[in-house]
Design a protein that fits this description.
The complex is a heterodimer of chains A (about 120) and B (about 120). Chain A is an all-beta fold and about 120 residues long. Chain A has no helices and eleven strands. In chain A, the strands form two sheets. In chain A, strands 2, 4, 5, 6, 9, 10 and 11 form a seven-stranded mixed beta sheet that branches. Classes of the chains: A mainly beta (about 120), B mainly beta (about 120). At the A-B interface, strand 4, strand 5, strand 9 and strand 10 of A face strand 4 of B.
Chain lengths: ~120, ~120
């Protein structure tokens, strides 16, 4: 597609359930990022992928959060045993590696609501 | 990356220029100034970036002071669709970054810009 695609756009789950959020980056972009934005809060970095490896996982808030990327393309963010404080918009972005501008292109996000 | 300071909010009349200030007094020589905006319920959108020279593109102009300690984003003719939160971000250029720290954006609170008719 032309832009970064995220699915689902909305996800409602019960506390304690596991959820998977998907990101399809722009074709050819080797760098992929996950951020989250809680209600009324700023954007918080979670994890960065270069190809299939994640050299920076420093933003993952707990071991309930994990992410993987396969084929240098699609990425999945998994949250295990969801808690109410996990409710947020999860945003994915991609960019060309080592490009001078390093512009990150964002998807529309997945709005996660944990009841 | 250097920290930035922006006013929390500002209003602008439609059709007028919007001047958004950003202070980055601790910026270092290899750090760029980037501007992104986030329209309600959308992901952030890149606007413009610069190192020390003023920059202009189809969306905006970026004026960086000579000492690089502050900058101003200018939306020349604001429209209602420019209502958004605008983020000023300072970050090291990719070529200077170690691989494991390369790329992430550190967003502050930004400036909520409301364009009114």
């Amino acid at each position: 597609g032309a832009g970064v695609s995220q699915s689902p756009s909305n996800k409602v789950t019960e506390k304690g359930k596991d959820v998977e959020l998907r990101c399809d980056p722009i074709s050819g972009h080797t760098a992929l990022y996950w951020y989250r934005q809680s209600l009324g809060q700023g954007l918080e970095f979670l994890i960065y992928f270069q190809g299939n490896s994640a050299p920076d996982k420093s933003g993952l808030p707990s071991d309930r959060f994990s992410a993987e990327r396969t084929g240098g393309s699609v990425s999945t963010l998994t949250i295990q045993r969801t808690q109410q404080e996990d409710s947020a918009v999860y945003l994915c972005a991609s960019s060309q590696h080592r490009a001078v501008k390093n512009i990150q292109y964002f998807g529309a996000g997945t709005r996660l609501s944990v009841l | 990356d250097a920290k930035t300071t922006q006013p929390p909010s500002m209003d602008c009349a439609e059709g007028r220029a919007a001047n958004l200030p950003c202070n980055h007094s601790t910026i270092s020589g290899n750090e760029y100034v980037y501007w992104y905006r986030q329209i309600h319920s959308q992901g952030p959108q890149y606007i413009i970036h610069g190192l020390k020279n003023n920059e202009t593109n189809e969306m905006a102009s970026l004026i960086i002071t000579e000492d690089r300690k502050s900058s101003t984003l200018i939306l020349p003719h604001a429209t209602l669709r420019d209502t958004a939160v605008y983020y000023c971000i300072v970050r090291v250029a990719p070529a200077y970054r170690a691989t494991d720290s390369w790329g992430k954006l550190q967003f502050g609170a930004g400036t909520q810009v409301v364009v009114t008719p």
